[in-house]
Amino acid sequence: xxxxxxxxxxxxxxxxxxxxxVTGGSGGSVIVSETDPRAFRYLQLDNGLxxxxxxxxxxxxxxxxxxxxxxxxxxxxxxxxLAHFLEHMLFLGTEKYPNAGDYQAFISANGGQHNAFxxxxxxxYFFDISAGALEPALDxxxxxxxxxxxxxxxxxxxxxxxxSEYLSRLRDDPRRELAVVKSQINPQHPFSxxxxxxxxxxxxxxxxxxxxxxxxxxxxxxxxxxxxxxVVGRESLDDLQDMVASRFGEITNRGTRLEPISTEIFSxxxxxxxxxxxxxxQQRSLSIQFxxxxxxxxxRSKPLAYIGNLLGHEGHGSLLSELKxxxxxxxxxxxxSLDFQxxxxxxVDIQLTEQGVAQVDDVVxxxxxxxxxxxxxxxxxxxFDEQSQLAAQQFRFRTQRGLTxxxxxxxxALQKYPPAEVLRGDYRMDVYQPELLLTYLSxxxxxxxxxxxxxxxxxxxQHIARYNVDYGLRPVSAELxxxxxxxxxxxxxxxxxxxxxxxxxxxxxxxNDDGKPRRLDSVDGVELWLHTDDRFEVPKARSYILLASPxxxxxxxxxxxxxxxxxxVKDQLNELTYTAQLAGLSYSLRSNWRGIEISLGGYNQTQxxxxxxxxxxxxxxxxxEERFSRLQNQAIRELENHNKKAPYQQLYAxxxxxxxxxxxxxxxxxxxxxxxxxSDLSSHVAKVVGDFRYQILVxxxxxxxxxxxxxxxxxxALAPAKSGSLADQEIVKLTPRQRRFPLQAEHDDAAALWYxxxxxxxxxxxxxxxxxxxxxxxxxxxxxxxxxxxGYIVNAGVYPIRDVGGLVFIVxxxxxxxxxxQREINGYLENWLAQGVxxxxxxxHKASLLAKLxxxxxxxxxxxxxxxxxxxxxxxxxxxxEQLSAxxxxxxxxxxxxxxxxxxxxxxxxxxFVYHTGRWPEAQPTGVLVRSHGExxxxxxxxxxQ
Length: 946
Prior knowledge:
This protein is an alpha+beta fold. Helix content is 41%, strand content 20%.
């Protein structure tokens, strides 16, 4: 079930009691949830640009997102990837701001971030920034859509970056699978085109012609009438309107018209079709897709969402439940997988076991039985009303996303819904149309199915060179069709009514709230903290429970047993917790360096019920051999796939394994998992549960009785708390020396990660390097990616662990070996140190970082998570940010330069260079070779943190 996780719906009752229509002065009204304190205004500029303004006076951050209703669909056949290439080029200078790196540098210097993406029908550009810098940022941003330069000197450089992006994903299984799918659809359909682009498809050897195509594409499609802009700032709506109208009103309206796609995505008589795909990673999945009409006009009925909710349900009697009971599947999702003007795709994706691949025809038969069951019995008013009720609650108490996500969501929604519905449109579902549902279900038949099976060892006899992927077509015989059509329910059942739906939305008022949790009197020896938070006015809370136990995580073998124990608990609970999730509850169960961590979120009324169920199974799971074997194989497979990920991802994932003393390496974890047998687990659980020290935080719309009630449930379900201190966390303390640690990734690109640790533990060095990372990030990117064209993936940033400061530099390159990357990063650092930083630049970046540390949480989840992280790290006054700010305030330019120079000075550098040689194994970087995690950690001292 995908829909309610990402968007939801709302019923008529919500329109009357739970939503408010907010009118922003002279602009159009926007319907908002009752908990949203912001002011909104919709307007359309004279040039046709659709604009949503959001005034949030208390905001620390501001930002904007501009969506252009054009994407790879519009790529010329002989310049595939052009829309994506244009997205890259747009950042590299405008007539008013000609320097290519200035925009990035300005955003970074003011504590922000920026990016863009190109999809089939949309290209979206966005940024966030410190609230006080919004106006000058908008001035630069607007010029992208008014007068970009498309400098000829950057055409070859940036087409190389696009090609590098393509090369970096050559071993990415989703990209390879998409290439196969595109090869099978109607070649006249625009979705069949290669959307990323590379040197060949962009005809990079003809620079002048490529630039001409770029300019022509921009002038044809980048038109104000198919653009939508969202701006969030702390200024008034009138001031925001003045900022926007005076700048974005200059965008040309070219009168661009976009017509629905009439070409069918699958050619006549080409279905059903079965495609086998050979993956790189050890994965097994089945995807069944159906072409259906565009459902956009039915946004108040949402037929594909309704069907996806039922087909993707994971409760008792569901398709997934039946597949799991037979040992055939590990997971399932269903819903709309693709939509564009005129058409859509509905898909079901099933993660199979090895046995499931062997029985895949029976898996398909069960899928069609489930579809038939929904068609016959599932189109019911009460089911529709339940989905509407859940969505009504979601919109009524809507939690704001992070600012960047919120900006992108709103600019995209402006292209899809009436202006008044830009916030509510995804949630609205107040028109029950059973005939429409049956119409869509009638299209989900065997004769209309496009099926792809991805697994090692399948019969494949065809090849796509662009992604080096092998695939094959399997005939779908008439006999096989008849077998799939002979529906027999096999124990499948539609979902029962949801028993976790909340009904009590009363709010708890905080008394003398200083914004921080307070410790309550001991309850059965438990360390219990409470924070009643009424700032966000939602009937929700977060509850965190740390079950600290050294025996749970002491060594790779004990960690493996704990991981498998928790996996079995989550798998056993899945049917129940999925139903709770639909009702607005969430939970996580995982191990950390101290033991086991449980978190619950959502409506406070129903959290106790969920916690009781979780802890009951945690204490005494069903020791099922088949479940154990399936989950053990899954855990091993996930780790074995590690060295098939992109090199830069592997390098970054390796850092905590090198720097945290207790963190085992991948191979050690795999070996430990293989050694575990089911009989080990029950004795392990008994030992761990008897060793628990409790640390609990309850945060949100809760009072003291709620906190004590949850604590009583925990102690009663598990065991009395043991006394004693918690284990220390040990971080490797590097000494002045250059070390190198090679990794073997299955990729031709070379990759390098240079981690440099502060010479001293403490907040002064941590903030000094934090400031250095902020100052360097945009320039490092510009110099090594844009100017030197070393690769698409280039990044510099900070990497603190507790109070140990650090910097990290990452490059993945298709053109330079690892030794060369080491020289380039080293050369950059030497030049940066030699150039120095001016007093003005230092002051600007310092102010920006102080503002970032002072940012208020964006929602209840963010606020509670901050408190929990502080508690885990020993800040029982919940003042980690204040302490960092105080250290930063005390930092002057001379002190900062001294700390940074001591960190980066080559002879004193405390670092480790993690790398992959790619196609150049002979080009080894310099430094002392580290042969294993154990050797590395055993020879170095540690920092200890409680």
